[in-house]
Design brief:
Length: 357
């Protein structure tokens, strides 16, 4: 048995009876030939045509060259900003070792990740030891959660220059599209990304939706393909080099809410109800894949985490995405198990048998 056959067999085993549904699907919506797909030459083939500086291209290449997926065009990123976003106690109680920033970075290194994304405090605490060993992505804004009542607001926790001085390869930021504060956030992050590019760093945007009105008649449209696709499109407009988005769980948010502008073809020709087709619509909104889409791994559900993570990776890859950014599923368990989960995600992208749908 070859190495690739063994990887495929393991993925099929993890997917179980759902293997055919995810691995055999053929996308008949947006043709894969229209997409700019990840590959070993991503920077030369796609980004060299852009206005990104030579140093920013170097930072992108550094991220794409690191870890088990180095040289493939795909990325596996460990994000640990949940200590602020979801409270440190709730995030690290399942495994208190991750209160220590070094263990966060060690998990990314030993897990074979392309990069580690975290806060100024976490990465700054170990920068001299690790900033030259794995690309740092410094998350510059957060929803700090302690203000009561909590609001859907992201505030800056430091400066882009602080991240640059730390040796970061990239800065990351969140915009809560749809929230009352989203326009201020949009202006702040557009300016921050402009400076990051000027200094030679890459930019990654968490393109999340936040508004209580996005829930209607018992259905939550925060991860609707049409709404998240538009959030991605706004993100690439302010020159995010990579966009992070939740995997779509449904579609028709605009129509259900009687909001925004739509075209019937968005729902009849550009997407179906298959998860891969819904994700491809997100990819298309990132300039047909010129700006890579990474989907989030989501919260930990315990025993189903491995299967859930592999499904998300398969959907993202087969849709034309660039990779996965998975945190809680990896760090809310013993490090050895977290490393195994990250490797299972990466194996999906390493397997040439898992093709673009």
């Amino acid at each position: 048995m070859t190495k690739n056959t063994a990887i495929m067999s393991k993925t099929v085993e993890i997917l179980g009876e759902q293997a055919g549904y995810y691995l055999s699907h053929v996308c008949r919506t947006i043709d894969k030939k229209s997409l700019y797909l990840p590959g070993p030459d991503t920077v030369d083939r796609i980004w060299a045509e852009s206005d990104r500086s030579v140093r920013t291209l170097g930072s992108l290449q550094w991220i794409l060259s690191n870890g088990r997926l180095g040289g493939t065009g795909y990325v596996s990123i460990l994000p640990v900003d949940q200590g602020i976003e979801h409270s440190a106690g709730a995030s690290f109680a399942p495994n208190p070792a991750y209160f220590d920033p070094e263990n966060i970075v060690r998990l990314a290194v030993e897990g074979g990740c392309n990069a580690v994304a975290s806060t100024f405090g976490v990465l700054g605490a170990v920068a001299r030891k690790y900033a030259h060993k794995i690309p740092f992505i410094v998350k510059i804004n957060h929803n700090e959660l302690l203000s009561y009542p909590n609001t859907y607001d992201q505030v800056l926790f430091g400066t882009v220059r602080d991240a640059w001085n730390m040796g970061a390869a990239a800065v990351g930021a969140t915009i809560y599209f749809g929230s009352p504060e989203s326009r201020r956030q949009l202006v702040e992050i557009a300016r921050a990304f402009d400076l990051a590019h000027e200094l030679g760093m890459a930019t990654i945007l968490w393109c999340y939706l936040r508004n209580g009105s996005l829930k209607k008649d018992g259905t939550d449209y925060h991860a609707s393909a049409d709404l998240t696709g538009q959030a991605d499109h706004l993100g690439v407009t302010i020159k995010a080099d990579i966009v992070k988005q939740k995997l779509p769980t449904n579609n028709g948010g605009f129509t259900a809410l009687h909001f925004g502008k739509t075209n019937e073809k968005m729902y009849t020709e550009l997407a179906s109800d298959h998860p891969i087709d819904l994700c491809r619509y997100q990819v298309a909104n990132g300039y047909m894949g010129r700006v890579g889409l990474i989907n989030s791994g989501g919260e930990s559900h315990g025993v189903s985490d491995l299967k859930d993570a592999v499904i998300t990776a398969v959907v993202n890859k087969r849709a034309g995405g660039m990779g996965l950014i998975s945190g809680r599923k990896a760090f809310q368990r013993p490090m050895k198990e977290g490393i195994a989960l990250l490797h299972a995600i990466q194996d999906v992208y390493l397997d040439p048998g898992i093709t673009i749908a």
